[in-house]
Write a structure and sequence with these properties.
Radius of gyration: 17 Å
Number of domains: 1
Largest sheet: 5 strands, mixed
Number of helices: 7
Helix content: 25-40%
Structural class: alpha+beta
Order of helices and strands: HHHEHEEEHEHEEEEEEH
Distance between the termini: 16 Å
């Protein structure tokens, strides 16, 4: 068991509590914590080493809260300006965006996203081409909820000219959601699928681990590693 991985999980959990996630999810803090506890079990076996700048070993993703309520809670490292939702999403806001079916996003209120890369190597690369490369590497693009989780828990991940497409969420057209810096705050907007941007990479991760993984670990009597 890695104490450091559990410490990191607890840091992220406490951050979510401090931001009022239980209330936004319509739950008591006790119930919210109980739903996260299976993920804490999984975190025991996750690595905490950071391979390079823009890499995060794991992050807690909460799907039980409307992402539009979470955007104002975003901040850049060392700043207090609240996150901005781009009005160009239209009257429907973020509701039309859904995770791509083949990603296998866990049907759970919360899960762990593992081995995350900001993806700045794809700055200047069209999102469609970036996703093709990411897929060949056995990785998957991030969704809107995952991008929000990443910036919430690791504000320093968002840097000038090192921002990110969230190509795992789509709305049936050529729009690709993305998060970048505007007016000293994170801004959740979108860009066209065929357009490269020198300041937008494409974020990705290796795995999504939901509560069912903890149950499988308990049945098997041993830890199950994600690599």
């Amino acid at each position: 068991m890695s104490a450091t991985s559990v410490d990191e999980f607890d840091r992220q959990r406490d951050r979510l509590i401090a931001l009022g996630y239980p209330q936004l999810a319509g739950q008591s803090t006790t119930k919210f914590l109980a739903q996260l506890e299976p993920l804490r079990v999984i975190a025991h076996d996750l690595a905490t080493d950071v391979r390079a700048e823009g890499h995060v070993p794991f992050a807690i993703v909460v799907r039980s809260v409307d992402p539009e309520k979470l955007v104002p809670l975003l901040h850049l490292a060392g700043r207090t300006e609240p996150g901005i939702l781009d009005r160009n999403h239209g009257e429907a806001g973020l509701a039309p965006y859904q995770p791509l079916p083949h990603l296998g996003v866990p049907d759970a209120r919360a899960y762990l996203l593992v081995d995350i890369e900001r993806g700045e190597e794809f700055c200047g690369v069209r999102p469609g081409d970036a996703v093709a490369t990411i897929t060949r590497r056995g990785r998957q693009p991030l969704t809107i909820h995952e991008g929000i989780a990443l910036v919430t828990l690791f504000p320093e991940i968002l840097q000038p000219n090192k921002c990110m497409m969230l190509a795992g969420s789509r709305r049936g057209d050529r729009r690709v959601p993305a998060v970048w810096i505007s007016m000293n705050a994170p801004k959740l907007g979108w860009c066209w699928e065929g357009n490269p941007h020198t300041w937008l990479g494409t974020a990705s991760a290796v795995a999504r681990l939901g509560p069912e993984r903890a149950a499988a670990m308990a049945r098997g009597g041993s830890r199950v590693r994600a690599s």
